[in-house]
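Z., the sequence and structure:
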Amino acid sequence: MNGRYIFFKGVIDTLDLYTDEFVKIYTQHQDECLVLDAGCMDEEIVRLKAFLLEPVTAVISFNNIGMQLAFSEGVNVWDQYGVPFYNILMDHPFHYKEMLEQAPQQAVLLCMDENHAAYVRRFFPNIKRTEFFPHAGIEAAADGDFAYLPLAERKIDVLYAGGLSRYAAEGLIPDLGKIVDFDAFVLVKNALERLIQEPDYTTEFVIEQCLKDLNFTFDNQKLGEIVAKLRFVDAFAVSFYREQMVRMLVESGVTVTVFGTGWNRCEWEHPNLVYGGEIPPYQILELMQQSRIVLNTMTWFKRGAHDRIFNGMLAGAAVVSDTSAYLEECFTSGRELQMFSLKDMRGLVDSVRDLLTDPKRAQNMADCGYQAARDKHRWINRLRDIHLL
């Protein structure tokens, strides 16, 4: 029996890219898909009501989009119709505290990092089902089968597609002076220093440890409130390492082409830094096909991955990424991709330069990475893993 699925689009371009891929997969599987424009739900309600006249297999959405829909006040539509709502969180759950506390009974939370899933189980007991659902990649080819360019014929040496989050994080900083339970200025300073010094730790772990250092212990409800309020330190740590990584590479003589917000606001410049501005996510996939090396840093995912890794592999590029427990379970550094530690940025520079000066090794790694991602790390694999396909 074929399934019937509901999706949402129209909020964030990157999420629309994932949604388009999911719809393509389900359509090829002969399933029926309803794609709603989340930007004008008042007009879409009629289509939704008509679709709900027959049983719906599931809603598959990203970052809570559509999760709180109701036809009548106080009655969540997914609970009303008994439709499982698969909510894929692309970011840490501490960014969505209020939304997750109000999740419908039908919600199934899918987290991109195993630590995120553990966080949900600890701080959001109202959510009955939470699973690890790692990132996957998209192959930017219409038929999913193309002869990608050899690395020697590509025009971009190193591509990094990711913004500097510290500028966006400035808008997340609360009035620390109004926090009366503890000295928030001291805690933030200590937490940032510890994250930079010990990048293997999660942000929530560091904040809790810094509170204990100040002789404060809180229950899960209060601690969850504090972590959510101070989550901006996570973005500052991510941004610090992204900027350091790129700066060390360009200062060592490597040309790095970057896309994303913030790079034009850096306090430093270098002729080896090529800033391409902000472009649609699908164009990034195409540019990866023109890149010898696709560079990745995690958004502080310590037991997960990032789609830059798998997108780069599926583009036939040599991928270089900071490591995680999940990546180490899936791959061997130097075979399918090159991993490095944030504690050893010099090792990153050496690895990138070695790959650029040893095209045979780089091509072999790119070929192995492509095959590994094609076999096990596309979105169709993830959907099968959780029995949604």
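The chain has three domains: 4-133, 151-166+235-377, 176-229. The chain has 16 helices and 14 strands.

Let me know what you think.
H.
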